[in-house]
Specification:
By secondary structure, the protein is an alpha+beta fold. It contains seven helices and four strands. The protein has a two-stranded parallel sheet. The chain is globular, with a radius of gyration of 18 Å. The relative contact order is 0.09.
Length: about 140
């Protein structure tokens, strides 16, 4: 349906069904992760130049996380624009060239890939501090 919206004809959907989704079933029967993979597959088949991915790694299995990471790398190699939102720092670090930090809808600052380690250390210090020690784990 989304490919049709762009007048794109899909010749062999089964070959392009890289997530092995049961395309003969209604999407309403799919799990959250399957729905996310179906949506990603649909926008990939549209042939867009720009992709906005909202939390693409949440709710999907490990193999799909690996696949999505490689898809993002391939899109970047094809000079496509990928805008990605995530609360998982490691996925951002693995896929992004730059991270933009927002708080309450306001841009705080942007961080280039070369400074991701410093950003992660800063975020850990702010978020964790000494909270783990306060648990008094033995």
């Amino acid at each position: 349906m989304l490919a049709n919206a762009r007048d794109r004809k899909i010749k062999n959907i089964e070959q392009q069904n890289i997530f092995d989704l049961p395309l003969n079933q209604y999407a309403s029967t799919f799990s959250t992760g399957m729905k996310k993979k179906l949506a990603l597959l649909a926008i990939l088949l549209q042939g867009n130049q720009c992709f906005i991915l909202d939390e693409p790694f949440n709710g999907v299995d490990i193999q799909s996380n690996l696949m999505i990471t490689e898809i993002i790398h391939k899109l970047k190699a094809l000079n496509k624009t990928v805008i990605l939102s995530s609360h998982i720092f490691s996925t951002l670090s693995d896929t992004c060239d730059e991270i933009y930090l927002f708080r309450q809808g306001q841009l705080l600052h942007s961080v280039p890939h070369s400074d991701f380690d410093s950003l992660e250390a800063e975020m850990k210090a702010f978020s964790i501090g000494n909270k783990i020690e306060r648990l008094e784990l033995i």
